[in-house]
Amino acid sequence: MNYRHAYHAGNFADVMKHMVLVALLDAMKQKATPFCYIETHAGSGRYDLRSVHARKTAEADDGVARLKTATGLPPLLWKWLDVVRACNEGDEAFRYYPGSPWIAAHLMRPTDSAQLCELHTEEAGKLRQLFHHDARIHVHNRDGYEAMKALVPPKEKRGLVLIDPPFEQQDAEFRTIEKALKAAMERWPTGIFAVWYPIKVRSHVQPFHRWLAKSGAKRVLAAELLLHKDDSPLRLNGTGMVIVNAPWKLDDALRDGLKMLPKLLGEPGEAEYRLTWLVEEGKDPTPVHV
Ligand code: SAM
């Protein structure tokens, strides 16, 4: 387990993933009843962009740094940027980058709760330290896939699971996700599951999309940001999220923000976004071609 998110925090994939997360949390708050936020791969919760790790790759320079002075942003991107600002307590230099647990904790209400899983002991320790004062949040230093079996359905019966693995071995991680998702969806058919994935070569992603299309889920939305052609296994060409049991009108909530990301984070004429229903209620699943 070599992956450390500190090397990648605030990169273009984080911007897109966390923008989607803000939209999902917004949707959860449409109802007054409490919800539970579950993360299988939580990381350490907050990242210092001046750390040796972050400076070594400087990935945030082509991610969050490009947006901090941007103008004319759609409301969803503003909302995410407000969370980044809150994480920096007024420091306009944006030294810190909020990971998904920090974003969720910031946007959750006093009655909502969170279950955060992180396998790496040091990262889990940082996460625990970050939220030690927050009784809504529970940190588990354990395998997130294993933990998910025990954590769903949550007692609230409403909730959102974020699955955001390191993808150290691409194909193997997709198969592990499928197995874990199948078990979780059987236990909790109405749960909302959001899965992040990297896009290097399209043919690695298609079997996962095909599996989702046949999974029995009634609504599966896929949002993707492609900075380069998806034809090289050697670099991260794009980033995607699929949302199983996507909330009502999530596609509308995401569209303007997603549409703007290629302009903000990519090179003109090269970057693009996609927003597609892999499964739409009452319709046959969208065919996914090889
Ligand atoms: N979700 C975080 C965010 O957006 O801020 C980033 C998570 S990072 C991509 C993936 C994390 O998963 C790493 O911190 C890694 O240590 C952890 N990890 C790897 N395998 C795991 C497993 N089987 N269960 C739980 N955590 C795991």
From TrEMBL:
<feature type="binding site">
    <location>
        <position position="164"/>
    </location>
    <ligand>
        <name>S-adenosyl-L-methionine</name>
    </ligand>
</feature>
<feature type="binding site">
    <location>
        <position position="41"/>
    </location>
    <ligand>
        <name>S-adenosyl-L-methionine</name>
    </ligand>
</feature>
<dbReference type="Pfam" id="PF04378">
    <property type="entry name" value="RsmJ"/>
</dbReference>
<keyword id="KW-0949">S-adenosyl-L-methionine</keyword>
<dbReference type="GO" id="GO:0005829">
    <property type="term" value="C:cytosol"/>
</dbReference>
<dbReference type="InterPro" id="IPR007473">
    <property type="entry name" value="RlmJ"/>
</dbReference>
<dbReference type="InterPro" id="IPR029063">
    <property type="entry name" value="SAM-dependent_MTases_sf"/>
</dbReference>
<keyword id="KW-0694">RNA-binding</keyword>
<protein>
    <recommendedName>
        <fullName>Ribosomal RNA large subunit methyltransferase J</fullName>
        <ecNumber>2.1.1.266</ecNumber>
    </recommendedName>
</protein>
<feature type="site" description="Interaction with substrate rRNA">
    <location>
        <position position="3"/>
    </location>
</feature>
<dbReference type="GO" id="GO:0070475">
    <property type="term" value="P:rRNA base methylation"/>
</dbReference>
<keyword id="KW-0698">rRNA processing</keyword>
<comment type="subunit">
    <text>Monomer.</text>
</comment>
<keyword id="KW-0808">Transferase</keyword>
<comment type="function">
    <text>Specifically methylates the adenine in position 2030 of 23S rRNA.</text>
</comment>
<dbReference type="GO" id="GO:0036307">
    <property type="term" value="F:23S rRNA (adenine(2030)-N(6))-methyltransferase activity"/>
</dbReference>
<feature type="binding site">
    <location>
        <begin position="143"/>
        <end position="144"/>
    </location>
    <ligand>
        <name>S-adenosyl-L-methionine</name>
    </ligand>
</feature>
<comment type="similarity">
    <text>Belongs to the RlmJ family.</text>
</comment>
<feature type="binding site">
    <location>
        <position position="100"/>
    </location>
    <ligand>
        <name>S-adenosyl-L-methionine</name>
    </ligand>
</feature>
<feature type="active site" description="Proton acceptor">
    <location>
        <position position="164"/>
    </location>
</feature>
<feature type="binding site">
    <location>
        <position position="18"/>
    </location>
    <ligand>
        <name>S-adenosyl-L-methionine</name>
    </ligand>
</feature>
<dbReference type="GO" id="GO:0003723">
    <property type="term" value="F:RNA binding"/>
</dbReference>
<feature type="binding site">
    <location>
        <position position="118"/>
    </location>
    <ligand>
        <name>S-adenosyl-L-methionine</name>
    </ligand>
</feature>
<keyword id="KW-0489">Methyltransferase</keyword>
